[in-house]
Amino acid sequence: MKNKILKILCMAVALCLLISISAVAADTQDSDLKVRVNGRLVEFPDGQPFIDANDRTLIPVRFVAEELGAAVEWNSKTQTAEISKNGITVDITIGEAALKVTENGKTETVKMDTAAVLKSGRTYVPIRFVAEALGAVVDYSDVYRTVGIYADKLTADEINMLRSLPYTTSTAASGYEAAKKQKSAEDLEYFYGADRETFDNFANAREHLYACTLCEYLPFKLGKLDKSLNKPTPSEFFQAVVDEAIAETSYQSERVTITFTADTSCIYQEDNVDGNTCAVRGIVKARIHVRPTELEGVESGMLCRFGFTQFYKDVDMCIPVDVHMNTITNVPISVNTFVPAGTAY
Q1: Strand 277-288 to strand 256-268: parallel, antiparallel, or no bridges (unpaired)?
Q2: 169 — alpha (psi -120 to 50), left (phi > 0) or beta?
Q3: What is the CA 229 to chain-centroid distance, rounded?
Q4: What pLDDT does residue 42 have?
Q5: Which pLDDT score, from 0 to 100, does residue 271 have?
Q6: Pick from 160, 145, 279, 149: which is nearest to 211 by CA?
Q7: What is the pLDDT of residue 87?
Q8: Hey, which residues does 245 pair with through a beta bridge?
Q9: Residue 284 sits in the same domain as residue 218
Q10: pTM above 0.70, yes or no
Q11: What residues make up the domain containing 116?
């Protein structure tokens, strides 16, 4: 009888341990998940993302929402988090698998694939639904386990359009497919990265830049911006690369105005040797204030280089462009070349 009771007790203890281990695993399984908002990694000081019973990753909503520039309020009576930005309000109630989006006086209910929960005083939600309701684009790099959330200079429609275009690549360089036939596996990984075949997911091509750069050990200078960086973080470095691309691409005269709209949502590593360049993808808008025949030769040449084939006075002309930037340490960060997005050069 005593042996039977002892066995039952042992089984009970083992079951409790198993449940405890499972619970801990469920809370820590996504502890290595990173969240990047507009190029910056979000720090979660007192609560990490975790996977819930529906196999969905939940993220503390306040830190991400505030990184997006949204205001967050908590109603303790209704257990509802209210997030607002640019006239859009998102209400999320604990325990409900739906959120309410109010814009221009109209409220819409959006179903989520899991319920919001309150844990350790923080509201956890499947962040995609909240971010998209606020007009952001959400992606995920499966190679680098990073959620990307973007609502910066480019709109969601512009980001989706830009990402739908093929990567630009140099015809003079040995692309990845050609290199696979010529280089050893070790050289292939060194020059192109081990994850190159995953670049059909734009998030992987972007996160490859952040993961593989050695910028934290090196000094850099920015050409047009006349600024120095000393061992910057990857987030600081690639934001500076985008800022330099915008500064060098934009142009203003009494005859023509050229602006380049870009942010870190559409940067990527081109199909070329790793670490030498970074492609900054964005939209060039040109407006001519005179008759096209009155443009200076250099101005006409610049417009042609961007890919404009016809010029019109007082009309906004837009074209998607990849600005390939030099990102090596011994020369100033500067434009290598401009290429209409989705073409070879």
Answers
A1: antiparallel
A2: beta
A3: 22
A4: 92
A5: 63
A6: 145
A7: 93
A8: none
A9: yes
A10: yes
A11: 34-141
Task: Return all residues near 331 (Cβ < 8 A) that are at least 6 apart.
Answer: none
Q: How far apart are CA 318 and CA 331, in angstroms?
A: 31
User: For residues 340 and 24, what is the distance between their CA atoms, to the nearest angstrom?
Assistant: 50
- For residue 48, what are the CA distances in angstroms to 125, 222, 331? 12, 36, 40
Structural domain count of the chain: 2
- Strand 146-150 and strand 34-37: the pairing is parallel
Helix pair angle (202-212, 234-249), 10° resolution: 110
Residue type, 328: I
Domain boundary among 141, 163, 179: 141
pLDDT means over runs of 10, the chain (345 residues): 45 39 41 90 86 86 91 93 94 94 94 91 90 94 94 96 88 70 79 76 92 89 92 95 96 96 93 70 96 93 91 94 87 88 78
| Same domain assignment for residues 205 and 316 | yes
In this prediction, residue 19 carries a pLDDT of 37
pLDDT of residue 320: 97
Point out the domain boundary residue: 113, 141, 169: 141
Clarify whether residues 242 and 105 are in a common domain: no
CATH label of the domain that carries residue 88 = 3.30.457.10
- Partners of residue 80 on adjacent β-strands: 75, 93
**Residue 272's CB: how many other CB atoms inside 10 A?**
22
Looking at 203-276, which runs of residues are DSSP E strands?
Answer: 219-222, 227-230, 251-252, 256-268
Contacts of 137 (CB under 8 A, 6+ apart): 131, 148, 149, 150, 151, 156, 159, 160, 265
Q: Which residues contact 254 (CB under 8 A, 6 or more apart)?
A: 289, 290
